[in-house]
Design a protein that fits this description.
By secondary structure, the chain is of the alpha+beta class. The strands form 7 sheets. A 7-stranded mixed β-sheet has the order 16-19-20-24-23-22-21. The protein has a 5-stranded mixed β-sheet with strand order 1-4-7-8-9, with no helix packed on it. Strands 2, 3, 10, 11 and 12 form a 5-stranded antiparallel β-sheet that branches.
């Protein structure tokens, strides 16, 4: 046996057994124990290796000795090198993957699965048993990268006792000999001492133990506890020098030892006491909205809070945002959760689909979380609030007419946004401007502007995506940058006028393309600072108006802080408003 990658495989143990009868029946007690552990009985040789893995925690593999050509080598793969695994799947190994080979070819993917060409069968009589230690970093993520998940890979990724390999083979021989017979040769262990893990001693201070536990324990009890866990302890003036056993790779710092003492002594033996620490509150600027009040607005309007993964399906995100680069994960937990989200919409849409599949006919979900935007070589985290609306506008009940329970649309979600904007104290600074977005229905999407700056989007999901995702009703989505969209206006004192208000109504005919926000903006600019309120109380289309035109009725409220306005003052302002609308918007006054 030869270790060509000792840093990845610092120890490899093997033993040859001859004259094994692999056709004999496995004892009932072993088959039953394997079954209860979720392992299927296959043959005496395979069952014994599985049993030892479950009993000692050391994965093993058995080769048909007649099928091996020459000695065993453990080396890194060459790019594109093919290996036929036990499950019949041929994989192309990458250069950072560790292989077990004989003189001719690869016979297994180290730490993951053995090869098919050297697998034991019913005819096998001579067996080569292998038990190795593979460094966790040499195995980590390799199986998942190939779409595999095995008991061996899970154990090696988390760490295996590096002193257990010889004992595991001895146990396997002791179990296999009474079942299938055979004669075992010597156990050969090849290792690289320089690359084996070290278990350096860890200092445990008596003072630190008492400080963290909040209780004083007798020295003999502490030492007896640690020695009972097979740790070597050497008393010192201020505590102990503790060397953990080889299988305790989780003991590395003093806090690990303190945790072990607390666990064995019993947490119930440690008195409870309030921590005497100063309370430091982080500053909360007045401009930043309180999260509780912000989310309460949506909850009061029938929404439920969702918490989704920060990593999402790359295919779905690519369809929603084809022009936005995303940060890919180097070791994703699943292939459909392999990129960081550039928006909260992918997670919310998946959650809405799950609810729809469970026969929910009215879906209102929102999420407050972080999205990740790539800016050159860096990634920026943006605090975001997003929501999805799908299904009936109102809950079904006898007091609501059927026509009012139709599917929610753009304007239902828009009214929820406007309720959020009211809490900022600057509702008049927001504007919805028609726009085009890759994920939204053209003509049913709008940018959300605050003081002319884009702070979010709202719109109905694009019909192609609605069909592709199989939504019953087209969902409506919105998303806001919390810091810029929901910043609260600092309260400031304003004197209340003691003088009466004056109202004038004005009906103007404008083109259909003129939005109400544009009309209100022009009126506000022309009316000067005496305008205290503007109400749009009627919109008319129909007989008496030209095609492509509409009549909008406005209520203008004027008031001065220092005097009562006269009719001449108001008429002069109204004349200025009318002149501006005629010039800028091609409007005419409707008598």
């Amino acid at each position: 046996m030869k270790l060509e990658a000792p840093a990845a495989c610092p120890r490899f143990a093997g033993c040859i057994l001859r004259g094994v009868d692999n056709r004999t029946a496995v004892p009932l007690w072993m088959r039953e124990r394997l079954r209860r552990a979720g392992v299927r009985s296959i043959s005496p040789v395979v069952d014994v290796t599985n049993y030892v893995m479950l009993e000692l925690g050391q994965p093993m593999h058995a080769y048909d000795l007649r099928k091996l050509k020459g000695g065993i080598r453990v080396r890194l793969a060459r790019d594109g090198e093919r290996v036929m695994l036990l499950d019949g799947k041929a994989i192309e190994a990458q250069s950072d993957m560790l292989l077990i080979t004989d003189a001719e070819r690869a016979v297994g993917l180290a730490g993951v699965m053995g090869g098919l060409h050297t697998a034991v069968s019913a005819e096998t009589s001579d067996v080569f048993l292998e038990s190795a230690y593979f460094a966790p970093n040499a195995v980590l993520g390799r199986a998942r990268r190939l779409g595999l998940q095995t008991d061996a890979s899970q154990r090696f990724e988390r760490g295996v006792d590096f002193a257990l390999q010889g004992r595991a083979i001895e146990r396997a021989i002791a179990l296999l000999a009474p079942i299938a017979g055979g004669t075992a040769g010597p156990i050969e262990v090849t290792d690289s001492a320089a690359h084996l893990p070290k278990r350096p001693p860890v200092t445990l201070r008596r003072k630190q133990l008492g400080r963290l536990l909040g209780a004083s324990l007798p020295d003999d009890r502490v030492q007896h506890t640690l020695e009972g866990l097979e740790m070597q302890t050497t008393p010192r003036a201020d505590g102990w020098e503790v060397t953990p056993p080889s299988y305790r790779f989780d003991i590395a710092i003093e806090a690990d030892l303190i945790e072990e003492v607390a666990r064995i002594v019993g947490f119930e033996a440690i008195p409870e006491a309030d921590a005497l620490e100063p309370q430091r509150f982080r500053p909360l600027p007045e401009e930043r909205p309180a999260e509780e009040s912000m989310l309460a607005v949506l909850a009061q309007r029938g929404y439920q809070e969702a918490i989704t993964y920060a990593f999402v399906d790359p295919a779905l995100q690519e369809r929603l945002f084809p022009d936005r680069p995303a940060l890919a994960l180097s070791n994703p937990i699943a292939s459909d959760l392999s990129v960081m989200r550039v928006s909260l919409w992918p997670g919310l849409l998946r959650a809405a689909l799950e609810n729809q599949h469970r026969q929910q006919d009215r879906i209102r979900l929102f999420e407050h979380g972080t999205r990740f935007q790539i800016d050159g070589a860096s990634t920026r985290e943006i605090d975001t609030l997003a929501a999805v609306v799908s299904g009936a506008r109102l809950p079904e009940q006898w007091g609501v007419p059927k026509e009012m329970r139709g599917a929610a649309d753009f304007y239902d979600a828009k009214s929820d946004l406007e309720a959020l904007f009211t809490a900022t104290g600057q509702a008049e600074s927001f504007k919805f401007e028609a726009g085009s977005h890759s994920a939204l229905h053209t003509g049913r999407a709008a940018r959300v502007l605050r003081c002319g700056r884009e702070v979010g989007w709202i719109g109905e999901l694009h019909p192609i995506l609605v069909q592709a995702l199989d939504f019953t009703y087209p969902p409506v989505l919105f998303e806001l940058d919390v810091d810029s969209a929901l910043a609260v206006k600092r309260p400031a004192y304003q004197e209340i006028s003691r003088f009466p208000q004056v109202r004038r109504d004005l009906a103007v005919v404008v083109d259909e393309s003129v939005t109400l926000s544009t009309l209100a903006e022009r009126v506000t600019l022309a009316a000067s600072n005496l305008l205290r309120g503007l109400r749009i109380f009627d919109v008319y289309r129909g007989p008496g108006l030209e095609h492509g035109r509409k009549s909008v009725a406005l209520g203008l409220i004027f008031q001065d802080i220092s005097r009562t306005l006269t009719d001449d003052d108001v008429e002069r302002i109204m004349a200025s408003v009318v002149a501006d609308l005629r010039e800028k918007l091609n409007a005419r006054i409707r008598e």
